[in-house]
TrEMBL record:
Main location: secreted
Molecular function in Gene Ontology: signaling receptor binding
GO terms classed as biological process: Wnt signaling pathway
This protein's record includes keyword Membrane: no
GO cellular component, one term: extracellular region
UniProt keywords, alphabetically: Developmental protein, Disulfide bond, Extracellular matrix, Secreted, Wnt signaling pathway
Organism encoding this protein: Protopolystoma xenopodis
Name the UniProt record assigns to this protein: Protein Wnt
Biological role: Ligand for members of the frizzled family of seven transmembrane receptors.
Compartment list: Secreted, Extracellular space, Extracellular matrix
Length: 123
């Protein structure tokens, strides 16, 4: 399923994956479907989890907002399993508790990644 390839910290990525793959057109069984997020839940998620404007629009969208439960459960799973997986490593996922704020270790890691990546060819 396409949703497994999603960056869990950015719900807008879920939007792009769902829209590009056309998965929202597939029939969903109403009896097994979770209720979508209400307006109040979207606003609460915006304050609690720091949803950006585009992510909030995704949460409120009639056709796509059913995916918010999956995105929330995935983010909770990452918060649960990441520290257990990397507990014996130098970086043990402590920074994810501060998201959406980016801590210095994540900024430094991003800059190291950018400097380590090979330059793009010209032309």
């Amino acid at each position: 399923m396409h949703l497994l390839c999603v960056n869990l910290h950015h719900v807008s990525t879920v939007h792009a994956t769902i829209h590009c793959s056309g998965i929202y057109r597939y029939a969903r069984e109403k009896s097994r479907e979770l209720d979508h997020f209400s307006e109040a839940e979207c606003v609460y998620s915006s304050y609690r989890y720091g949803l950006r404007r585009r992510q909030l629009r995704f949460c409120r969208d009639e056709r796509r907002r059913y995916a918010m439960h999956a995105a929330l459960k995935s983010a909770q799973a990452v918060a649960y399993y990441c520290p257990r997986t990397f507990r014996d490593r130098r970086w043990n996922c402590t920074s994810i508790s501060y998201l959406p704020l980016v801590t210095p270790d994540l900024r430094r890691g991003q800059s190291l990644f950018n400097s380590a990546s090979p330059p793009k060819p010209l032309g």
